[in-house]
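SAMPLE LOG
Freezer: B-3
Tube label: C17
Construct: single chain, 138 aa
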Amino acid sequence: MKPYTNFNHTADLGLAITGASEEKLFANAAFAVFDILTDLGRVEPRETRRILVEGDSREDLLINFLREILYLYNGERWLLKEIRVIKIDQKALEAEARGEPFDEHKHEICKEIKAVTYHQAEVRKSPDGWAARVIFDV
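STRUCTURE (predicted):
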């Protein structure tokens, strides 16, 4: 079972993400972006990228994190296969992503995601762990 679900939001893409811990929630959010973007079965963990972000709140931290994740593809043409959040607190996050450069002969882009928005962004502790909602421009 996937750790996220899509929800309808006008012409944009909304995601509701869950995780047993805050680290897992953020990792699942990154996974969701690339799971929607491409067929992860064709991506191999050949290279490692370090991701460091800061934010003024958990929502700001999530948005900044997902912006960095999206930049891997939109700016560097790099696809994420797996991610591990190494350290997180209310203002900063450190993660390690593994993946490979986009290859048009090997990878297919299923859905373009242009940007992550602050609109209705939410991160909260839930009875089962952590939950978040985020909306993307597609």
